[in-house]
Amino acid sequence: MILIARTTPLEDVKKPSEGLSLFFIDFDKNTPGLELTKIKKMGGKAVNANEVFFDNYRVPVDTRIGKEGQGFRILEKP
Predict the structure, then answer these.
(1) What is the pLDDT of residues 24-46, one digit of tens each?
(2) pTM for this entry
(3) Closest CA to 7 of 18, 52, 15, 24
(4) What total number of domains does the chain contain?
(5) Which domain holds residue 41?
(6) What angle do CA 6, 25, 28 make, to 5 degrees?
(7) Hey, which of 16, 17, 50, 66 would disulfide with 36, CB 3.0 to 4.6 Å?
(8) DSSP one-letter string for the chain
């Protein structure tokens, strides 16, 4: 899973798009701090849709893509 997360507090950046880092993480629903809630849909039931909640979820620094705080810029690149 590609995860974008705030790694610099919002009050320490000039724009809300700054201070976000990008990570490539293993997606194991049994990992502590990760919760999935199924989204009820009217159609398209062949593919599951879920809300994903993180609470004290540990993300190793070696899963980071690019430099810290540059995640939004990476996503903007064509």
Answers:
(1) 998 888 889 999 898 888 877 77
(2) 0.78
(3) 18
(4) 1
(5) 2-76
(6) 120
(7) 50
(8) -EEEEE-S-GGGSSSTTSSEEEEE----TTSTTEEEEEPP-SS-TTS--EEEEESS----GGGEESSTTBHHHHHH--
